[in-house]
Predict the structure.
Amino acid sequence: MKKTLITFALAVAASAGIKAQQLPLFSQYYYNRFIYNPAFTGVEDQANAFLIHRSQWKDIAGAPVTYALTVDGPVSKNKIGLGLSLFNDQMDIFNRTGLYSSYSYRFTLTDGHDLTLGLSAGVIDNKIDFTNVSAHDANDPTLYNQTQRKVTVDANFGIAYMWQDLKVGVSMPQILGNKINYLETNTNVYTTLKRHLIAGVSYDLTLSESAEIDFYPSVMMRYVKGAPVQFDINANFAWKDMLRAGVSYRFGYAVGFNIGAKLNKNLIAGYTYELVVSPIGNYSGGGHEVMLGFTFGGNNGGLSAEELDALNSRLDNAENTTDSLANELNKKDQQHDEEIEKLHEEIEILKLENDGAGNPNDLNGNQDNSEVRIENAADFVDEAGQTLIPGFYVIMGAFKNKDNALNAKKQFQAKYPAVIIHKQGEFYYVNVFYTVNEAAALQYAEEQRKIQPDVWVFQLK
């Protein structure tokens, strides 16, 4: 159907009025941040595909109609993201089709803080179809060629910062700023791909854990030289991650109302209606945007990221509990070993006492004197390793373990001149008195039995 140049001019003027400039305009980018910023390529745990159809100003002939298909996902342990995007933007006699490939790399700054850099590059097929123009001047030279078509390369750059549920991104689409010449004659018809600046911030909040209600506020800013700054303010709510609804305001242009639903574990759908509140709203009518999304790979169909985090937390707690129990068991085992060692020492001491009670070798020939035990001095050494001299030694304790004997020595030293003597290959004895007089040794031992009952005397010959 033919269109008049007046209609065309109105469409162009309306386009400038919403400050969208040359970039396709989308409303449900909170689902798919990758569509405006390549730094968000593959930042999720799974791959995503989105199909979008958008139509504006339904009451104006030749109004903008946009189609987009994006696919992105993580690789290399979520450090690298790869993606593809295809779009077609039609407005009256202008038609643009773009195909881009995207790459992102994630840097972990500190625990929980990530920075990603993204770059997308591709080609744009730019067409002007003059066959749809109804002109008063049929000799206009720009109408000689019915369709003008130029293909040019393009690139977009982006950076994003993520911390827990906070996401901040800045991107520069059409960073090359290429100039497209349609007619290579004296009549110059061209357009320039203007560099844009797009910045956005979003945060995910849980309003009610019991009711599973979440709130997703976000703000986006667009700027291109020669046009006013444009802001989007979005407020979206989700229930059980199954249903979504929200409202958005595009400054100076429109109010949007959107709904969305998770149809199953993989498929989501969304719809936005835009009510134009700017002056052109009296002539243009509203706008519609339909979105379908499909999630695949990653943890989808199994545990969610939140469930995995909870499971990992439980595993960490279980591991900590296991380590604590193991430490307690090790302590108990050590205590049991010490108690068994003490029992062995006591048994050996009792054996020694029984052996000493029947020892016939007494210095005075008194075979019934169980308080004196006769040993060979050459078998004993002191703490310095020197052989003991003959005489009578009053013993306050015998220990199989040298450390236990040293501990006992420390306790006795507060009151006695305690030293350790050792029979090679056998016990460590704590000696508190030495004399060459048997009577003196027996008297001293008798006095100490009031404090330490199991005191005896060694006679070393």
